[in-house]
């Protein structure tokens, strides 16, 4: 795992990967962020590893992945606080309904949710889920709660789902270019 020390990069983006099928797209998002000159770290929930190997995320990020297993370091640093202070922006991509619900009610029993709760400066959610889940009143309420805390959202988009559902709907992860544009906008908003 790479150290969380300072860097000369203009912006530091922590990419949170949650347990949805769209997790397989996270390396592409991370690659685009790095190509744009951002310093990137990745944090993944345990459920994310059901869809993508940890090694794949580590290669994309150019360093180790922060996980619940690495949460409490031998050095005595508590990663959720360290990561929250390090990141100029936390991008959750893909963001599941569960991850947004956990944040909206203030849960912090995994590394990603604890990092957001520990005072992340700016948070951008890139939701990806079944259209019925996206339009569920509970999800809509959680999104409004997070927006009320100045969290930002990109997507979801309309299109066929990764699960090969026959009917398209709103729930597909936004494309990489759209996410990158939203990251730049969120970073500009956080600075200004």
TrEMBL record:
InterPro entries: Flavin_trans-like, Flavoprotein. GO terms for molecular function: FMN binding; phosphopantothenoylcysteine decarboxylase activity. One of its GO terms (biological process) is coenzyme A biosynthetic process. Signal peptide: none annotated. PANTHER family: HOMO-OLIGOMERIC FLAVIN CONTAINING CYS DECARBOXYLASE FAMILY, PHOSPHOPANTOTHENOYLCYSTEINE DECARBOXYLASE. GO terms for cellular component: phosphopantothenoylcysteine decarboxylase complex. This is Flavoprotein domain-containing protein. The lineage of its organism: Bacteria, Bacillati, Actinomycetota, Rubrobacteria, Rubrobacterales. Residues 12-180 form the Flavoprotein domain. It comes from Rubrobacter marinus.
């Amino acid at each position: 795992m790479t150290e969380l020390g300072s860097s000369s990069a203009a912006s530091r983006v922590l990419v949170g990967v949650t347990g949805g099928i769209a997790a397989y797209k996270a390396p592409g998002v991370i690659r685009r962020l790095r190509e744009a000159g951002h310093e990137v770290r990745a944090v993944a929930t345990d459920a994310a590893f059901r869809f993508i190997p940890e090694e794949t995320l580590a290669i994309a990020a150019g360093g180790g992945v922060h996980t619940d297993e690495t949460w409490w370091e031998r050095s005595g640093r508590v990663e959720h606080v360290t990561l929250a202070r390090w990141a100029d922006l936390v991008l959750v991509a893909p963001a599941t309904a569960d991850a947004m619900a956990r944040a909206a009610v203030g849960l912090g029993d995994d590394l990603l949710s604890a990092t957001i709760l520990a005072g992340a400066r700016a948070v951008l959610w890139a939701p990806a889920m079944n259209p019925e889940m996206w339009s569920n009143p509970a999800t809509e309420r959680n999104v409004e709660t997070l927006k009320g805390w100045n969290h930002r959202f990109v997507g979801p988009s309309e299109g066929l789902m990764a699960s090969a559902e026959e009917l398209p709907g709103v729930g597909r992860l936004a494309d990489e270019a759209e996410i990158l544009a939203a990251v730049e906008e969120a970073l500009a908003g956080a600075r200004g």
